[in-house]
Amino acid sequence: MALKARALYNFQSENKEEISIQENEELVIFSENSLDGWLQGQNSRGETGLFPASYVEILRSRSGSNYTDYSSSPAGSPRHDSFYTDPPSAGISYQGSFEDDDDDDWDDWDDACTVVEEPQSAPGTNGHPSPSLQYPAAYSHHQHAGYHPKPALERQDSMSSSKRGSVVGRNLNRFSCFVRSGVEAFILGDVPLMSKIAEVYCIEMGSKGPQWRPNPHPFICSVEDPTKQTKFKGIKSYISYKLTPSNINSPVYRRYKHFDWLYNRLLHKFTVISVPHLPEKQATGRFEEDFIEKRKRRLILWMDHMTSHPVLSQYEGFQHFLCCRDEKQWKLGKRRAEKDEMVGASFLLTIQIPTEHQDLQDVEDRVDAFKAFSKKMDDSVLQLTNVASELVRKHVGGFRKEFQKLGNAFQAISHSFYMDPPYSLDALNNAISHTGKTYETVGEMFAEQPKNDLFLMLDTLSLYQGLLSNFPDIIHLQKGAFAKVKESQRMSDEGRMDQEEADGIRKRCRVVGFALQAEMTHFHERRVADFKKMMQSYLKQQIIFYQRVSQQLEKTLRMYDNL
């Protein structure tokens, strides 16, 4: 039975099976049972197709239940046994659990359980999910998966509970990312110190402020040779990618679901780091050549950002993903990564910060400036994405058709000149006919050109849409920490809190502040390199393209010289 629904967010289709929807648009849903996070229905323009279930709410009469909001369920679907994935971003195809034929047997890993099932947040900037819900919060609730209190462990502030008669109040909104991420618990000293912390990530002062200490063993990793493979005697198919890290120069082969597993571990662990989003999934056509090539290009960009990040590149789970070739060792490393205790708020315990003093207000001003910058850049990236996407459509459709029309018109002129043989000049007729064919060729060149320039631009823009969408929640963590510092100092001034305890809160706030500033520094360094490369590549390809067009036209022009 058809149901009425309302779109919560914008969604831009990217293939013929999908339809675009606009925020607040009225929709007709053919069935409320989603298929791996996708619903089939009709938009207000009469177009029929698929769109993400997490982007709509189904409207019901007062006599029934309110509405079904798929945006709060993992993968936008009632299924909870599927691999946890992000909801789709506006203008980017859905990252749902359609991939690999819903192959959740994981026979190649001999492990049906992939990652901890985590609650999903409402979409953030650009429609991407807020990463904070995907981090395990080190809550005071001991049953939470990311929190493992042990009696023998010492409190971070080394103070007994008897000295804490008055403590900083906890946020009333227990659903804010500041609370859910566990950063509130960390700031208040409620995340216990581990007896032994094996991993350490250092922040040092650079010329432009705090920065992550570089990876002492930098490397790159190629992504090549996407190959369709089968198992179960051809019943199930998938694409494998050849990964070759430069530090070992020995290839491993990974499927997209392996990337997806790693991506979820990264979100699970790194609270204050903007983890690059994986390339999107799509409901249909995943074995088509164009889609495979597009995914490979975007995985190359994703891998480049991973290997260049001083922290992410050193993560043991990432190294295991890139280097392990033995099946038994792979399973052990996979389970070890899933049992990692230094995740979420506990990850902050692994960060060593400089001793340099930073004024709290100066840090807050710098964060506010970055917040304004990232919002403006986010809007600009979205604008350029829309313009470039429209230009691709014109290249493939409009420009080609217009040049074909022009070519046909020239050939029609040529054919008409043959109608009166006594006055017909074959050389002129042939030249005009060739001119028509040249413009048809130019039209085909325009249709093929996006593969050389605009696609690469859109790949970079898509990556930055994901990176920018992570920052609002990360900045919110810092804002929450600032607020706790101010509250604790006020309580200390009023004699309701020991100064030692207030100093502990300020010290832990410095960790969050330094980490965010280091992440800001890394983002700017990558932004400069990536956009320089993107613009240089685009302009070089444009020059080559118009030189080829010019050569075609000059060759045709010479046919008129000897008439």
Detailed description of the structure:
The protein has 563 residues and is of the alpha+beta class. Among the domains are: 3-59, SH3 Domains (SH3 type barrels, Roll), CATH 2.30.30; 221-352, PX Domain (2-Layer Sandwich), CATH 3.30.1520.10; 360-560, Substrate Binding Domain Of Dnak, Chain:A, Domain 2 (Up-down Bundle). Helix content is 44%, strand content 11%. It contains eleven helices and twelve strands. The protein has helices at 99-102, 177-180, 183-187, 256-269, 289-308, 316-323, 327-338, 360-417, 426-448, 454-493, 499-557; strands at 3-7, 26-29, 38-42, 48-52, 56-59, 67-69, 201-206, 209-212, 221-231, 236-245, 252-255, 351-352. The protein has a six-stranded antiparallel β-sheet, with no helix packed on it. A three-stranded mixed β-sheet has the order 8-7-12, covered by helices on one side. A three-stranded antiparallel β-sheet has the order 9-10-11. A hairpin with an 8-residue loop joins strand 2 and strand 3. The chain is elongated and about 110 Å long. Residues 1-61 form the SH3 domain. Keywords: Cell cycle, Cell division, Cytoplasmic vesicle, Endocytosis, Membrane, Mitosis, Protein transport, SH3 domain, Transport. Its main location: membrane. It comes from Halcyon senegalensis. Belongs to the sorting nexin family.
